[in-house]
Amino acid sequence: MMNAPESQDLPCTAGIGLRAPHYQEVLDHRPALGWVEVHSENFFGGGSALCTLLEVAQHYSVSLHGVGMGLASPDPLDVKHLRELRQLCDVVQPASVSEHLCWNSATGVVINDLLPFPYTQNALTHVAARVQQVQDTLRRRILIENLSYYLTFIGSEMREEEFLSELVARTGCGILFDINNLYVNAVNLGVDTQAFIQGIPREAVGEYHLAGPCLIDGCLVDTHSAQVFSEGWTLYEAALRHIGKRPTLIEWDTDIPELEVLQGEAQKAQQRMDIYGNLG
Question: H or E stretch including 280?
Fold first, then answer.
């Protein structure tokens, strides 16, 4: 098995989420991609998938994005999951590692979803301890992604951006600012986008994510199945103006189009980075 290059920061350019339908095309043709992101869990256990990723890592910076850690779950962290993630990081030496601000298990029952929770002081203490445990195990800083959610909790004591800001202060973690998630929450629940952008510590933002949602029965759903909405681009421009240029990812996880479509979306992001990204 070939070795991956040494870990380095992601280039401050636009990249794409690399999914299975495009593996061979990327390896065969090595298209111009700023960087690529993959879902960590798809490469646990090694095998041919990991060999493919290591070959990709010879040519592109790689970000590992986790979807199964469940940082806010009441159950103890899955030691096997965390061990597999560390082994993957040790082999791939990714430029970035990220996880969602969510829960996904209780009393041993795992739910295949990214679920919200009340933003309380108790939850903050709980999540901060778990983020620190992950960082200590991986021996690296991780980025925490803001969540798309479809309900709010009466018991919340702070807004999401306040929770994230305090989490950064307590653990030294970074923030993966998902523009689409914020847009979905604004449309469905009236979340104040400008308060969020102004409220998170901009120096902690390590990446942006962009994706296209879908309107289902009057609800905007974070499906990652379409091109970025015009409102999403506008929100991205506002984030660039205030926070500044950061590595930016185009996510597309269902109804995956041809690679050229993803490259076209990445080019749109790059153009906006070049125009607005130096104003932050």
Answer: none
Q: Per-domain residue ranges for the chain?
A: 14-276
E strands in 143-198: 143-145, 174-178
> pLDDT digit string (tens) for 111-134?
888 899 999 999 999 999 999 999
Give 190-198's long-range contacts (Cβ < 8 A, gap of 24+).
Answer: 191/160, 193/235, 193/238, 194/238, 195/159, 195/161, 196/146, 196/159, 196/160, 196/161, 197/238, 197/239, 197/242, 197/243, 198/242
Q: What is the distance between the alpha carbons of residues 4 and 55, in angstroms, rounded to a whole number? A: 8
Tokens of 138: 């991986």
Burial tier of 136 (Cβ tally within 10 Å: 0-12, 13-18, 19+)? exposed
- For CA atoms 78, 84, 90, 93, the dihedral sign is negative
User: What digits encode the pLDDT tens for the residues 51-68?
Assistant: 999 999 999 999 999 999
Q: Give ∠ CA 153-191-269 in degrees, rounded to 5.
A: 130
- Distances in Å between the Cα of 227 and the Cα atoms of 42, 82, 220 are 24, 33, 14
Per-residue pLDDT band for 16 (boundaries 50, 70, 90) equals: very high
CATH number of 14-276: 3.20.20.150
Give the mean pLDDT of 143-165: 97
Task: Quote the CA–CA distance of 75 and 106 in Å, as a whole number.
Answer: 6
Q: pTM score, two decimals?
A: 0.94
